[in-house]
Design goal:
4-stranded mixed β-sheet, 9 strands, 52% helix, elongated
């Protein structure tokens, strides 16, 4: 005779009782009351006496419940809860349980699952995967990041206790998203060593999920992430082509959110622009705080450079710092790359960091459209046009061909760069500012009367691929 759903639930309780202590069973499982089972949807509804019992079962006994349901009901049974919130007035609230997962049939001699003991419940050693160099101390505050930084610090000090849960940070590449979410994790771990804090990239999460699926260990994968107190996921826009990963994360997200665990997400665009995001996830993400990190302005870039120079013991002239800040395309990543390259060149060639070196490094390190011209760019084109070498131009020679190249280079440098005449003169043969002013004046006068020379100069300018 086929057993009724209520009898099958009784079998579940019997199996559970064999795998927990008597006190654990009396505290967490004996009070559970069978409500109903829908065979079509495979939803099993049980009543629990309080929200605390529901949250405790979801946090510590998901695997045990899943395996018991598998043994008695079969696969894909979803366990839902009816929580008694006011016994006197018979008020209840229904909540979903964790997503059902396929579980291999255990061997008859195997225990279903070891129930958590005091030792099991103790925080296990976990590799946070955080970059400990990315801290709030090194995350310089500016107008473009003041709100996200302030909120991030508050979250780190009170994880899961603020209204900023989940915390969704978005912004363009290089604006400091990864630095900020790492800083939150590092600060939180410093203040609460016992908490399980984990930083993971969206791509790594996807790889882990794929591996777990292949090895038939999805249940273990989900259970691991459900034990995290502060979950930080970077670059979630990379899940666009992986709906199964998204669906699995959604159930992990729900579980952590119900238990008041802190969730921090980062993306290169806001949730509404993630077209693959389901409405239910968009609603979840929007219930906390969505904060934008903008590209740093020039002043913030200068402050970041000063901070890095102080931290690394570098000596970079103020005009070079200004130039880097103005040409690094508002990217913190580019700023750091340029400074690291300057330091390497300076050490290898035993030379001071100056404007010429900065120009060369930026030309190779910073990839942007309409890249600003440098004096080196101009010298290269002008010398190539007149078929002379830069050594000839830098020499003291007053030969007419060399003088023309020198004057044209100074004129174009003043026209297409933001450098003062003194800096241009220094970069073109070590001349003073009066020589640059005289050269520019000479070229301007000649352009007014010499159409052939004007056409020649236009040809050189066109080779820069910029507008006059």
């Amino acid at each position: 005779m086929e057993k009724s759903p209520k009898a099958l639930w009784g079998d579940c309780l019997h199996l559970i009782k064999e795998n927990v202590t008597e006190q654990q069973y009396k505290t967490w499982f004996a009070p559970i009351v069978f409500e109903k089972y829908d065979e079509e949807s495979q939803n099993l509804l049980v009543q629990v006496p309080s929200r605390y019992v529901y949250e405790y079962l979801e946090q510590y006994y998901v695997a045990l419940l899943s395996k018991a349901l598998f043994r008695c009901f079969g696969t894909n049974v979803r366990l839902n809860y009816r929580i008694v919130v006011d016994r006197a007035h018979r008020i209840t609230v229904d909540e979903e349980g964790s997503e059902p997962v396929d579980i291999e049939e255990p061997q008859p001699s195997a225990r279903i699952n070891k129930a958590p003991t005091e030792l099991d419940a103790a925080t296990k050693e976990l590799n946070t995967q955080l970059d400990t160099h990315k801290t709030f101390q090194s995350f310089i505050e500016g107008d473009s990041n003041k709100l996200p930084r302030t909120v991030g610090l508050s979250i780190a000090e009170h994880p899961g206790k603020t209204t900023f849960n989940p915390f969704f940070v978005f912004g363009p590449s290089g604006c400091g998203k990864t630095h900020l979410i790492n800083a939150i994790g590092v600060k939180c771990k410093e203040m609460y060593p016992q908490k399980r804090v984990l930083y993971v990239s969206a791509r790594l999460f996807q790889v882990q999920f794929t591996d777990a699926t292949r090895q038939n260990k999805v249940n273990d994968f989900i259970h691991f992430y459900q034990t995290i107190d502060v979950l930080i996921v970077d670059d979630i826009q990379e899940w666009a082509t992986s709906p199964k990963t998204v669906d699995t994360f959604f159930h992990i997200f729900n579980h952590l959110f119900r238990l008041g665990k802190q969730i921090i997400l980062a993306s290169d665009r806001p949730p509404v622009d993630l077209k693959w995001l389901q409405e239910r996830m968009l609603t979840r993400f929007s219930c906390g705080l969505i904060a934008e990190l903008e590209k740093p302005n020039v002043q913030l870039c200068i402050d970041i450079l000063h901070s890095k120079c102080k931290r690394d013991g570098l000596k970079i002239p103020e005009d070079v710092i200004q130039y880097i800040a103005e040409t690094a395309n508002g990217s913190v990543r580019d700023l750091e790359g340029v400074v690291n390259s300057l330091m390497a060149y300076s050490i290898v060639y035993n030379s001071n960091i100056d404007m010429r070196l900065a120009e060369r490094v930026i030309k190779r390190a910073v990839k942007v459209d309409n890249h600003p011209l440098t004096v080196d760019d101009i010298l290269e084109k002008v010398c190539g046009h007149y078929n002379v070498t830069q050594q000839n131009v830098f020499s003291k020679s007053r030969k007419r061909d060399y003088v023309i190249v020198r004057q044209v280079s100074m004129y174009l440098a003043q026209k297409y760069t933001k450098m003062p005449a003194s800096r241009i003169g220094q970069l073109i043969g070590g001349r003073d500012h009066s020589t640059v002013i005289h050269s520019c004046s000479t070229i301007e006068q000649r352009l007014k009367v010499d159409k052939s020379f004007s056409a020649e100069l236009t040809s050189i300018e066109n080779s820069f691929k910029i507008k006059k």
